[in-house]
Amino acid sequence: MQTTEAFAGLFCLDCGVDTGADSHRCPSCGGALVPTYDDASLAAAHERLFADDGSPARSTGGLARFGPALPFDAETLVGLSEGATPLLSCPEWTDEWGPEVRLKTEAANPTGGTVDRQMALAVTAAREQGAEAVALPTTGPGGQAAAAYAARAGLAASAFVPSRSSFDTKAMTNVHGGEMNVVGGRYPDALAAFADRRGAAHSLAPFETPYRHEGAKTLAYELAACDPDAVVYPTSHGIGLVGLHRGFSELAATGVVDEVPRLYAAQPGGCAPVVEGWKERNTAVDPVEYPDTIVGTLEVPDPAGGAHALEAVAATDGGAVAVGDDPLQDMALDAARAGLPVSATGGTAVAAGETLAERGAFRDGETVVLVDPVTANRETDLLRSRLMSEGV
Ligand SMILES: [Zn+2]
């Protein structure tokens, strides 16, 4: 594999063993792996990549602009100019809640979701390891992103999605040339079909590839200039929280940010295994037996990175909040009426942010970032149906 100077291989989040860059799970214990870096090289990379105020030295160029602090540089990365997404002011929530509230909207990514950051790195790793095909189970958006990045890299892609996944993601997976396997039932059924039928394809499943959560860390890199005190993130497998925790920890270690912000998981009440685990102060999650939420992207009853999400929340003194389907849709609609396109998935972060504000989790003078991981255009049915229930 053609890797960067700073990249030093992979290590296991569970047992700490070091292993080669082409591994999937830990060879010793089966735990999730993460990339590791030479401290001095990473510090030197940050010195070049960030201005004194924490803003990226380059404002365009996709993930490749952070290449020296990633496993792959601009020459090697499979890119579609992902990232560099807007960070919008939210004056109404700022007035109502107390802290300065900003919305990081990931809709501006090439396929409309934050998962593009993950696929840029994970598909690069697959190609560098000689894979000819990639495959993954997904609630939907990951299938479209995998198909697009695989096509960019000249690889075949195969997605296993539950039948309830949105029409748009299924259609666009096919449009990008990916193979679509629609599995009756819910996400665990798609996961089972993936395990049975993936064949020799290189797995892009959450936490099986060490490179998706590494791609997610670039969200922290883009938030460095705003130096948030708290980030609220809609959570399914935990990739986003783990990426934010690792990214901000790196930035704090080299002094780009003062400290790692408090990280909050937001989940719909009908499928909130991380929130339930947090309430019990557990270090692992118990699967949800009967998941039921309108937010299909977040309906993951047994998250692959549940324990790591709990660790990110605990280590940063953050928390985890469940919100009902009606409030999360209403918050998305309120935002839309104020001109901010927010998906139902993103509405989960907004409603959780409001709950946290009511509980006194934020102080005046703080900066709180809410993340909307996916374009509202992909969830028009959810938002429109809520309007119809109001007689509109
Ligand atoms: Zn291990």
Describe the structure.
By secondary structure, the protein is of the alpha/beta class. It has 3 domains: 63 residues; 203 residues, Rossmann fold (3-Layer(aba) Sandwich); 96 residues, Rossmann fold, CATH 3.40.50. It is built from 14 helices and 13 strands. The strands form 3 sheets. The protein has a 6-stranded mixed beta sheet, with helices on both faces. Strands 8-7-6-9 form a 4-stranded parallel beta sheet. α10 crosses α11 and α12 crosses α14. The protein is globular. The mean pLDDT is 96. It binds zinc ion. The site of zinc ion has 8 residues, from loops.
Detail the topology: elements first, then pairings.
Layout: E1 7-12, E2 18-19, E3 33-37, H1 39-49, E4 87-89, H2 91-97, E5 100-105, H3 115-128, E6 133-137, H4 141-153, E7 156-162, H5 167-175, E8 179-183, H6 187-197, E9 202-203, H7 212-216, H8 218-223, E10 230-234, H9 239-253, E11 262-268, H10 273-279, H11 306-315, E12 319-323, H12 325-337, H13 344-358, E13 367-372, H14 380-389
Parallel strand pairs: 5-13, 6-7, 6-9, 7-8, 10-11, 10-13, 11-12
Antiparallel strand pairs: 1-2, 1-3, 4-5
The chain binds zinc ion (ZN).
Zinc ion binds next to loops.
Please describe the structure with a list of short key phrases separated by commas or semicolons.
392 residues; alpha/beta; Rossmann fold; 3 domains; four-stranded parallel β-sheet; 14 helices; 13 strands; binds zinc ion
